[in-house]
């Protein structure tokens, strides 16, 4: 089975990103390239990652604009054939549909409520429910518009899986391996295993794997291997 771990290639250095792919690919299901990477290296950078090996790409651009603009932006990256392309569910059904039409072979992936937002932020922005209720509403809306995957917090997996069809993939960041000693900025985390047991199909992991690069490629390879073994 393909690994459920999506590794966040959070580095602006293309060479480093390529070496991370090279040493972890046996244990990783897809690689997440975000705004920092894409704004630095563009489509050419994505192609260079794909040239290391035929890996699946999670292109995390979080598109959010009027439907026409998002449709045209999505069309620009359709030829890269990412497995996943993210849009903000809050952009509404017409916007999500526009991305789906532009990229029929890509899983348009809807980001629900950013987990960086506090309950207070959620109220201030004007969501009608709390963050859990809002995430569930946004997931439902996104799937109706054709989204094939949902990004949510581990705490929202169970509630969202009750309202979406089984073929829709649930992807969650905000996970930390049980032995992780990294003291960082993620709050309210779950272990990857807990997230998968609750119904996530993929977990996004960054620093708990990439920090091993400091020790060397073998250490990073072993870390990724251990984490994927813990999930099986
Ligand atoms: O290093 P770490 O494991 O925290 O990386 C997780 C990745 O997932 C980062 O690229 C981060 O931006 C992203 N992410 C997150 N929490 C969210 C949404 C995305 O950590 N709620």
From TrEMBL:
Pfam families: OMPdecase. Keywords: Decarboxylase, Lyase, Pyrimidine biosynthesis. It comes from freshwater metagenome. This is Orotidine 5'-phosphate decarboxylase. Residues 4-227 form the Orotidine 5'-phosphate decarboxylase domain. The keyword Lyase applies. The lineage of its organism: unclassified sequences, metagenomes, ecological metagenomes. Its EC number is 4.1.1.23. GO terms for cellular component: cytosol. GO terms for molecular function: orotidine-5'-phosphate decarboxylase activity. CDD domains: OMP_decarboxylase_like. One of its GO terms (biological process) is 'de novo' pyrimidine nucleobase biosynthetic process.
